[in-house]
Write a structure and sequence with these properties.
By secondary structure, the protein is an all-alpha fold. It has 4 helices and 2 strands; from the N terminus they run E-E-H-H-H-H. The chain has helices spanning 33-52, 64-76, 81-106, 113-136; strands spanning 17-18, 24-25. Strand 1 and strand 2 form a beta hairpin. Helix 1 (33-52) packs antiparallel against helix 2 (64-76) and helix 1 (33-52) packs parallel to helix 3 (81-106). The N and C termini lie far apart (48 Å). The model is unreliable at 17-21 (pLDDT under 50).
Length: 151
């Protein structure tokens, strides 16, 4: 007679223990349950910073809208999967916005760019703030009008 398989992770009686808030874990789980809240909080904070760092362009940093999220994403993408996802989304949006800014700047010669540039700036600020708040809540965001360069 073959041995019986171990019970699934969420069934009592196995090698899994009951943690805080009913979370069942095994000894090899990462992060440990007592650090899970801190780990999730840090993940959400870094995800929010992926979006907020794109506002560096308004501080006068050339291409700060791409450099800020790129820096945060490169530093924390291996540590937090949520930051990897949100960093790519922020970078894709900022790269697309840079392209849109260049096109709008060229359209200044036909007087359409004078209207498009402030609208793009306003759109960027609103979209980044909304994305930052959602990322801090742990809800992933998909920016509109974005080409997915990084997948």
């Amino acid at each position: 007679m073959p041995p019986t398989p171990p019970p699934p992770p969420n069934r009592p009686g196995g090698p899994h223990r009951q943690g805080p808030n009913g979370f069942q874990y095994s000894p090899g789980d990462y992060p440990p349950p007592q650090d899970r809240y801190q780990w999730e909080r840090s993940s959400k904070t870094w995800g929010m910073l992926c979006h907020l760092s794109s506002l560096c362009i308004f501080l006068g940093v050339p291409f700060g809208n791409v450099a800020g999220p790129l820096l945060v994403w490169l530093l924390k993408r291996d540590e937090f999967p949520y930051v990897d996802e949100q960093g790519k989304e922020s970078l894709n949006f900022q790269i697309c916005l840079s392209i849109y800014y260049i096109v709008a700047a060229m359209l200044i010669f036909v007087f359409v760019g004078f209207l498009l540039l402030p609208l793009l700036g306003l759109f960027q600020i609103i979209a980044v703030i909304v994305a930052s708040v959602r990322a801090n809540d742990g809800r992933p965001i998909r920016y509109p009008l974005t080409i997915r360069f990084l997948k």
